[in-house]
């Protein structure tokens, strides 16, 4: 394990000093992208090192730890110390194995407890089966099984859903919508500070699914003292007008089923997997939070932070209860399937 720790320390120092030598040739124009790519490849080699340690060291240690050495060869003090050392080393390695499998299982509700590596492994397999897409209905209602056709249909569906239609904005009256004051506009346009960037990063869940860069937010949070300066400089340059390099704008889009057996594309929730790029969006979102109450009405529950979907269920129950008790009034209940608040935002 000492070797593993030394390798990790070397990767962090290489990030700081720029001495990692595994750069992608097409990514060296951007310092952050180059460092992330180098660190990612180094982490891959580090993972392989962990696997070799597991094969050649952990399995033999397990066999040795089954039977205490002192029971085999007398009561030697040196053997007792050796047994203690072996058990502690095995305990440390198994602890890191549990962390690795826990992250792969995406099990967020279980934070503490006994070692559950087999449980985490089953959770990982179950999650993969649940998220796997084998066939879906297209716009005409026909089943599509071919993977390439599925990809094409997915792209077309979400392009139509989220694509911009400028013609719909031309006829909207401008006077009926709330507007921002000059103070709010200046607040949104002020320079970004390191404090804002750090707050946005540490507001992200540390062990969510990693993006195409190969890193979770927990890596940048844990090593903020070493990598924070480079990250802050890149975010400030983006707000200063620099173009986002295509290497960072390469975001993985994953479709999460919202029902047990999805049959069409509307029954999936798309999420974007990215780490550093999300910082820019998080900083913007945090600024908008402070002025949202000025432009969003109370009935627009989908835009209000901390508003739970259960609130809408309670309101619906109260409406139906009033319908039953006040029989003199002519009530009518209509059940409609509305898309989420952000699904049609242009």
Automatic annotation (TrEMBL):
This is Reverse transcriptase domain-containing protein. It comes from the Eukaryota. Signal peptide: none annotated. Residues 262-346 form the Reverse transcriptase domain.
